[in-house]
Amino acid sequence: MVVLAVVPLGVFLAHARHPGDRTAMDRFVLTVTSPVEKSVDWVVTGVLGGWNRYVWLRGVERQARALSRTVNELRAENGDLIQLRAENERLTKLLAFARSRPELRVVGARVIGTRMDPKGLQLVTIDRGSDDGIRRMMPVVTPGGVLGRIHTLGSRSADVLLLSDRNSSIAVRVERSRARANVRGQGAPGPCRLEYALRSDDLIEGDELLTSGTDGVFPRGLPVGQVTGVKRGGHGLYQAAEVLPAVDVNRVEEVGVLVAIDPPGALPAAQAPAP
Predict the structure, then answer these.
(1) How far is CA 161 from CA 101, 142, 256, in A?
(2) Structure-model confidence comparison of residues 74 and 27, the more confident one
(3) Which of 42, 75, 100 is the last residue of a domain?
(4) Over 80: is that where the pLDDT of 162 sits?
(5) Which DSSP helix (H) or strand (E) runs through 275?
(6) Disulfide-capable partner of 22 in 26, 171, 174, 216 (CB 3.0 to 4.6 Å)?
(7) Does residue 129 sit in the same domain as residue 214?
(8) Cα separations (Å) of 36 from 29, 32, 50, 212?
(9) Is residue 183 part of a domain?
(10) Looking at the structure, do residues 44 and 137 belong to the same domain, yes or no?
(11) Percent of the chain, pLDDT > 70?
(12) pLDDT tens digit sequence for 103-149
């Protein structure tokens, strides 16, 4: 124990003396203890450096976690903003459609459910019903064109029979040639079937189809779809074709219900001539 106490003291005294005043013993002590001092200094420096790095890494880890939380929050907020912007754009288009057809009175609604079974009805449910003035058979549209018609009603909701349903038949007119036909659903989202297009009618791939207004449901001039796959056989009264719907029924989120249709040129009740 005494040696352990004396050795550090001797080293301290040897270091404390001016190099010119050191004795042979001092130089001996310094020579012998120098490797030990260097080793101790290396170990202490390494331990302190490791500890500092550990503390620094802990701090960096906390900062990284905080930044990760901030990034996730910003991503969620950005996602919400993107959805709101997309919804706003859709609603703006729906409003523009309503304004472009002043003869149509439109009630906006949101799609809140779907039931599109290939073996059953092709329906979507909207959040408007009889309390909002909705009635059966009223046309349902989007800014892109015809979606379907009201099928069943509740007080605050309604089911829309889609144009893709087998029970849906819409009277149309070829925009280019004015030829008449019907568009019927095939029981699944996707192409519909063109019916009652005469073999003599001018019909080509890519023709745009609009509602003709002759079925008592849809007003004239609404986009229904585009002709594809025209097949004109060598016999028979009609030619066959498919129709790519103007509206993707799988992507619809907001719709407009046409609750009233004013005939072109009709006067408001207050201005109509007395009978």
Answers:
(1) 23, 14, 14
(2) 74
(3) 100
(4) yes
(5) none
(6) 26
(7) yes
(8) 11, 8, 21, 102
(9) yes
(10) no
(11) 67
(12) 778 899 999 999 887 778 999 999 999 999 999 999 999 989 999 99
Q: Residue 20's pLDDT is what?
A: 56
How many whole angstroms separate alpha carbon 182 and alpha carbon 202? 15
Q: Are residues 126 and 88 in the same domain?
A: no
- pLDDT tens for residues 203-240? 999 999 999 999 999 999 999 999 999 988 777 899 99
Model confidence at 31: pLDDT above 80:
no
Tokens of 172: 């149309």
Q: Is 211 helix (H, G, I), strand (E, B) or coil?
A: strand
* pLDDT reported for residue 4: 42
Residues 89 and 121 in one domain: no
203 and 109, same structural domain?
A: yes
Q: Using N-to-C axis directions, what is the helix angle for 24-100 and 2-16, rounded to 10°?
A: 90
Residue where one domain finishes, among candidates 61, 82, 100: 100
Per DSSP, 255 falls in state E
CB-CB contact of 246 with 146 (8 Å): yes
Closest by Cα among 225, 140, 155, 240 to 190 = 225
Residue count (the chain)? 275
Q: Is 128 helix (H, G, I), strand (E, B) or coil?
A: coil
Q: Which domain holds residue 166?
A: 101-261
Distance separating alpha carbons of residues 68 and 43, to the nearest angstrom: 36
Checking if the pLDDT of 19 tops 90, the result is no
CATH number at residue 222: 2.40.10.340
End-to-end CA, the chain: 129
